[in-house]
C-alpha cells in the first residue's frame, strides 16, 4: 500500500478556505492554494480530495460551457477584450462579469434558465445607500415558483416523487 503522505490536507483546506480565502480572492488563487494543499494527496488510497475539477473534455460538454459559448460578450468585457484562452479562463471571466456587471450578466442567465416571471422585475439590482445588505435583487419581480418549476417542461418528467414509510416510490408527472 502506498504511504499516506498528507492525511490532514482536508482539515488544512477547511481552515484555509474558511479563514484565509475570501469571496474577493480570485478563483485562480483558490485553485493554486488547493493544488498546494492537496499536492501529496494519495487518491488511490484516500479517494478523491475535497475539491473536484472535471476533466477538460467533460467540462467542455457542460451546460455552463454551452452558455459561455453562446454568450461570448460576457467574456470579452474584461482584460482588454481578448477572447479567453481556455475554459478555465472563460469561467473566471464569467464569474467576474457576474460580480462586476450584474445588469449585463443576469438577463441572459435568466433567459437560459427560462425563468418565467409572474411580474417581471424593473431591473436586476438596486443598490440602496451603498449598503450591500440593503441591495434588492430583481426589484418588483413576482415569481410563482410552482408555475415556474412546471411550465414548459416535458409532460412525462417527474414533478413530485415520494414514498410512504415501507412503500415503494410513487411519481406524479408534470402532465398529470
Descriptive tags:
176 residues; alpha+beta; two-stranded antiparallel ribbon; 8 helices; 4 strands; 39% helix; extended; disordered N terminus
Summarize the structure.
The protein has 176 residues and is of the alpha+beta class. It has helices at 9-19, 27-37, 43-46, 56-59, 63-70, 87-100, 102-112, 145-150, and strands spanning 125-128, 131-137, 158-162, 170-173. The relative contact order is 0.07.
Topology:
Layout: H1 9-19, H2 27-37, H3 43-46, H4 56-59, H5 63-70, H6 87-100, H7 102-112, E1 125-128, E2 131-137, H8 145-150, E3 158-162, E4 170-173
Antiparallel strand pairs: 1-2, 3-4
Number of helices: 8
Mean pLDDT over the full residue set = 85
User: Into which percentage range does the β-strand content fall?
Assistant: 5-15%
Distance between the first and last residues' Cα: 55 Å
The topology string of helices and strands comes to HHHHHHHEEHEE
In which range does the helix fraction lie?
A: 25-40%
Low-confidence stretches: 1-5
Decide which structural class fits the backbone: alpha+beta
Shape: extended
Biggest sheet overview: 2 strands, antiparallel
Number of strands: 4
Rg estimate, integer Å: 22 Å
In what order do the strands lie side by side in the largest sheet?
Answer: 1-2
